[in-house]
Specification:
It is built from twelve helices and eleven strands. The chain is an alpha/beta fold and 360 residues long. The protein folds into two domains: 244 residues, NAD(P)-binding Rossmann-like Domain (Rossmann fold, 3-Layer(aba) Sandwich), CATH 3.40.50.720; 106 residues, 2-Layer Sandwich (Dihydrodipicolinate Reductase, domain 2). Helix 1 packs across helix 10. The mean pLDDT is 96. Bound molecules: nicotinamide-adenine-dinucleotide.
Length: 360
């Protein structure tokens, strides 16, 4: 099978983790590929993702070779010294729109803004020239306008869209219909990490529910030290992230918890944590004879290692959709890989549906 021609918008830490991880396995060919569901999906290995175009707004990244831009500050991932892939690919300008929030604006310089119609023309021409098949969006939380701009670009260019962030496209019926009508597949929204806060919380909440206990209250607090967490200090940008994370847990319970009995959210930025993300979760409930119990979990993970393998799977699953000429949200892939899919399922159910989808 040939390569999958991809583009990325948002050359941040997550993208750095994805491409440096692939390079790591390339440099260690005998090593077992950990972190993806299947080493091969529809004949494609992790080495078949070919990023041929990239877009950003950071002055340290735009106009730079992509293989160097992934190392530019404030990106933190440095798992391999250099990349052998993506040679000759230059990072092009994206419209800023609402991509950069108040706090991130203090630490990066952005390229001067340009007329959006002109930029869109250039973007469409770059995507066409490079024969891009799939666009991965790693835009920051709160970039609703920028996400809609790029979703529309995908529709116009007939390129599949993998939406890794929590502005709702695949799970928003109006946008889902637009993709369906255009004959373009979409997987989203908001990556569910490999063993991240969301999957751990929803799995344990479901366990407590399935075992017949009554959950009375639960919270999940996350802290980290990268740009994603600086950005999430701005509460106004967090609305959809909170919905995405909270609904992901609520969807696993037979009876929804009242809104004031569940708190799920990123909570603070601790600079020295860098890409380490800490999650603190608590479930309080009652069991037989009304006797109380509680459970506390502390999870410590590299936030970027946690997301990259999931996106590598998402891209290969989007490629299957393109090959089979499927359009609109890819329901099973979204349910298994994303926090806020068009249809929530339990994780075992989503996995079973996904295996069926892969087999066709
Ligand atoms: N485990 C995880 O890492 C995880 C899980 C779920 C979701 N996500 C989401 O993935 C997204 C990316 O995370 P990250 O850690 O790479 O963030 P990041 O802040 O490191 O990277 C974002 C990149 O987008 C660029 N950008 C900002 N506005 C732009 C615009 N208008 N056009 C083009 N580029 C723009 C920034 O310059 C930066 O390079 C975030 O929304 C995050 O919440 C990550």
């Amino acid at each position: 099978m040939g390569k999958i021609r991809c583009a990325v918008v948002g050359v941040g830490n997550c993208f750095a983790g994805l491409v440096q991880g692939v390079e790591y396995y390339k440099q260690n060919p005998g090593m077992e590929v950990i972190g993806v569901m299947h080493p091969i999906i529809a004949n494609h290995s992790i080495h078949d993702l070919d990023f041929v175009a990239a877009f950003d707004v950071d002055a340290k990244k735009v106009g730079m070779p992509l293989a160097q831009a992934v190392y530019a500050e404030p990106n933190k991932v440095k798992w391999v010294k250099e990349l052998s892939s993506m040679q000759g690919v230059m990072v092009k300008q994206s419209p800023r729109l609402d991509g950069i929030g108040y706090y991130v604006d203090q630490i990066i310089d952005t390229v001067p803004e340009r007329d959006i119609t002109e930029l869109k023309k250039e973007i469409l021409s770059e995507l066409g020239e490079k024969k891009v098949e799939i666009l991965v969006s790693y835009l920051p939380v709160g970039s609703d306008k920028a996400t809609k701009f790029w979703a529309q670009v995908c529709i116009d260019a007939k390129i599949a869209f993998v939406n890794c962030m929590p502005s709702f496209i695949a799970s928003e019926p109006e946008w889902a219909e637009r993709f369906r009508k255009a004959g373009v597949p979409v997987i989203g929204d908001d990556i569910k990490g490999q063993v991240g806060a969301t999957i751990v919380h929803r799995t344990l909440a479901r366990l407590c529910d399935d075992r017949g206990t009554k959950i009375e209250r639960t919270y999940q607090i996350n802290v980290g030290g990268n740009t994603d967490f600086i950005n999430m200090k701005e509460q106004e940008r967090l609305t959809s992230k909170r919905i995405s994370k909270t609904e992901s847990v609520q969807s696993q319970l037979r009876q929804r918890l009242p809104d004031d009995s569940i708190y799920v959210g990123p909570s603070d930025f601790i600079p020295f944590l860098s890409n380490t993300k800490l999650m603190f979760m608590r479930i309080e409930g009652r069991m037989w004879a009304n006797v109380p119990y509680n459970m506390e979990v502390r999870l410590e993970v590299d936030d970027k290692a946690n997301s990259a393998g999931i996106v590598i799977d998402a891209v290969r699953l989007a490629k299957i959709a393109l090959d089979r000429k499927l359009a609109g949200p890819i329901v099973a892939a979204s349910a298994y890989l994303m926090k806020h899919p068009p249809k929530q399922m339990s994780d075992p159910e989503a996995r079973a549906e996904l295996e069926k989808y892969i087999k066709g």
